[in-house]
Amino acid sequence: MINKGLSYIGIFFLYLVSLLPFWFLYLISDVIFVLVYHVIGYRRGVVRENLANSFPEKSEAERREIERKFFRYFADLVVETVKCISISEKTILTRMNVLNTELLDEYFGKGKSVIGAVGHYGNWEIAAQRFSFITGERRMIIYKPLSNKIYDDFFIRIRSRFGATLVAMRNTLRKMAEYRKNLSISVLVADQTPVKHEAHYFTTFLNQPTAVFLGVEKVSKMLDAVVIFCDIKRVKRGYYTCTFVPLTETPKATAEYEITELHVKYLESMIRREPQYWLWSHRRWKFKPEDKH
């Protein structure tokens, strides 16, 4: 009961903070950066290990610069995500510019649904809300539920407040089968770490054997849906662009794991382009292929 009460208090506090203007939130971000990086050293060891394994060709100085830039951006990501609680439609449209929505119109005109793969890159929370305005067809976001039911319900309301349908990861195939006769665009975060018993496929990602979900491939083949990657770029503080990059228009004609390799390699190319905008504090490499045996 106490934990429940604290959760509601936390949500109320976050809502109040979200009402602050961006310029003030970025002042808070500056403080968060100093505390998290220089004082607390939040997950600094995890970030350094991930960077060292991912970029062995870079010098220690180069990796430390990426590390510092990551934590600088991470602080911005925190306050921007809080802002999403009360952000207006006008502000979302201004701050996340989708450059080629006509591509979706083209696919829908051909009677094809679309699967969008994304990574934990840039501000995926603003992107999720911007997603609600890209088409009048059904929009679905596949998400991994939080362990705290109160916060999980809260974030579902935030992400769906402009019309998107949230589907829990465990219900993905059932929901997709239910909607398969209707045109839709569904977005899946493709760089989640599967639990060990669900790690059925490993690939090389950022120089390391990496377990990957096969959801994008399975759903696209089931629906015969076009697969695109949502390429997010940070233009400047608080402003982003998103470009839809086609990966395959004929999923059923692809070989096993081909679609998975396509979206993994595309995400890697984005990370190598500007590595500071990926979530390096995430324990992405929890186990190796030999741990399965």
From TrEMBL:
<keyword id="KW-0012">Acyltransferase</keyword>
<protein>
    <submittedName>
        <fullName>Lysophospholipid acyltransferase family protein</fullName>
    </submittedName>
</protein>
<keyword id="KW-0997">Cell inner membrane</keyword>
<keyword id="KW-1003">Cell membrane</keyword>
<keyword id="KW-0472">Membrane</keyword>
<keyword id="KW-0808">Transferase</keyword>
<dbReference type="Pfam" id="PF03279">
    <property type="entry name" value="Lip_A_acyltrans"/>
</dbReference>
<dbReference type="GO" id="GO:0016746">
    <property type="term" value="F:acyltransferase activity"/>
</dbReference>
<keyword id="KW-1133">Transmembrane helix</keyword>
<keyword id="KW-0812">Transmembrane</keyword>
<feature type="transmembrane region" description="Helical">
    <location>
        <begin position="12"/>
        <end position="40"/>
    </location>
</feature>
<dbReference type="InterPro" id="IPR004960">
    <property type="entry name" value="LipA_acyltrans"/>
</dbReference>
